[in-house]
Design brief:
Elements: E1 9-11, E2 16-18, E3 25-33, E4 41-48, E5 51-59, E6 64-72, E7 76-82, E8 88-96, E9 102-107, E10 110-117, E11 120-127, E12 132-141, E13 147-152, E14 160-167, E15 170-178, E16 182-183, E17 187-191, H1 204-214, H2 220-224, E18 228-233, E19 236-245, E20 251-257, E21 263-272
Antiparallel strand pairs: 1-2, 3-4, 3-21, 4-5, 5-6, 6-7, 7-8, 8-9, 9-10, 10-11, 11-12, 12-13, 13-14, 14-15, 15-16, 15-17, 17-18, 18-19, 19-20, 20-21
């Protein structure tokens, strides 16, 4: 297993990031469904660098429900789900190329591959029935290496294109269009006015990884940017995060609500110095 010394560096499947002595390193996350005071499940993850080394879920009575085992090599990350008594509950496998970019992703027996040509990425999925790859999407990267657009190629209702508009390294809007002009699922993203520490910033490979494995763009900002505040669709706030930061910009707690302003999650972050 490829691990990193907690006090010195953080590492993940896409980049090695040097952490200076005065920076904090994430060592633990707690995910509560709904809120930490009223939850149905609690997931606890422990980290060594950027790698999850322990990952367990418990119910509201504190009883063990589920465990995810993470395994790493220099160019792979595999997860295996285990229920009570060790029952197998599924697996995922990510494989990366020499530049740390996602090249293959397997989940639930479904295999996807990603081919990089210049600033484009072709996403394909193995079709067992026809014994060949089915094209899913064509992605385009911007100058900073972040995916900026997705052309959905297997949409039965016609050509569908999503495009991110970036400001200061963050997507602030996503514009969807059918057949070159009909608007579809446009959304805006707002952020807290907080400076995120260098070691906690999102790299292009991390950003692209999440998009490619899910084959969609809309939900990515709220999943990976801890300083995201709102997702606005039309005049409605579809997602809101009430986030607490420490004076250095490290996120301590992130409470989220859905379109009905009902609690949807509560995440607590713990660091070593």
């Amino acid at each position: 297993m490829l691990l990193c010394a907690i006090a010195l560096t953080s590492c993940n499947e896409d980049d090695n990031v040097t952490v200076t002595d005065n920076e904090k390193v994430l060592v633990k996350k707690e995910y509560f469904s709904l809120t930490s005071e009223n939850f149905e499940s609690r997931t606890v993850q422990y980290y060594d660098g950027e790698q999850i080394v322990a990952d367990s879920t418990f119910n509201s009575d504190g009883e063990f429900v589920f465990q995810t085992v993470h395994s790493y090599t220099a160019n792979t990350h595999t997860t295996t789900g285990l229920g009570p008594g060790g029952q197998f509950a599924g697996t995922t496998a990510s494989e990366f190329d020499s530049q740390g970019r996602l090249s293959e992703y397997t989940f639930g027996g479904v295999q996807r591959r990603f081919t990089y040509t210049g600033d484009t990425i072709l996403a394909e999925q193995w079709d067992e029935q026809n014994q060949g790859y089915l094209t899913l999407s064509e992605y385009t990267m911007g100058e900073n290496g972040f995916i900026k657009s997705q052309k959905v190629l297997n949409n039965v209702e016609g050509e569908l294109v999503f495009t991110f508009i970036f400001e200061n390294g963050r997507p602030v809007e996503i514009v969807g269009q059918y057949n070159g002009g009909v608007p579809y699922n446009t959304a805006n993203y707002t952020y807290y006015n907080t400076t995120i520490p260098v070691s906690q910033q999102i790299t292009a490979n991390k950003f692209n990884y999440e998009i490619l494995r899910l084959d969609q763009m809309h939900v990515i900002p709220q999943l990976i940017f801890t300083d995201l505040k709102d997702v606005i669709m039309g005049t409605e706030v579809a997602f809101h995060a009430e986030t607490t930061f420490d004076p250095e910009g490290y996120v301590l707690q992130r409470q989220t609500t859905n379109v009905n302003l009902e609690p949807s999650g509560d995440v607590h972050y713990y660091y070593s110095e």
